[in-house]
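Batch job 17 of 40 flagged for manual review because the log was empty.
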Amino acid sequence: MSKAEEIKRDLWNLADPERAALCQRYFKTKKGEYGEGDQFIGVDVPGVRKVAKRYKDVSLGDVQTCVRSKIHEERLCALIILADKYVRAEEKGQETIYNFYLKNLKYVNNWDLVDQSASRIAGRYLLDRPKDILYQLVKSKNIWKRRVAIISTLNFVVNGKYADTLKISELLLKDTHDLIHKAVGWMLREIGKRDLKTEEGFLKKYYKIMPRTMLRYAIEKFPEERRCELLRK
């Protein structure tokens, strides 16, 4: 049995049909919804993480087998393993993992998969490198690639670099998808935690045209009076 098969076996041993049914609804897997066709077996994130930790040293070939699975939790496990590998790798290995991630982006196809991997892999790799790829992704018709573009910048924000987050946020102001609105609002809020003046400067310029969900997420930690003031205008 390959390591990939062992990973799948261990995940299936944790499967919960009732939880799977809830996940199918929560992650919008019906026809026409953003997660159309995604399949769940009902393993919670702590359970997936335990399996990932157990197999942190598997080959990229085994990771690829899992990341291309139809089963959501198998893809999630693969991405958690990949992010852990990135942290432990030397520079050459990190480049290999980053390129592997980009080649498999089509399988990073739900919001939690993006959120568990984009900043931890692409964001880390691009921190002190040219970020052209993010500006390509943000123009994609694929919602998940656009979400990868903005969520990747979380690692920049954590390291005190806000410029690209602000530029990509500006490019996404007219995006029509609620999941992008939430992602941009989240990143703006993260900037505000570290530099409120910078966040407020962006909001002063754009709050009147921002989607309401984006604005609500961005000002979630503001005093209630200030939140109400911004939402009224």
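Reviewer: the log was empty due to a logging misconfiguration, but the result itself is present. The mean pLDDT is 96. Unflagging and moving on to job 18.
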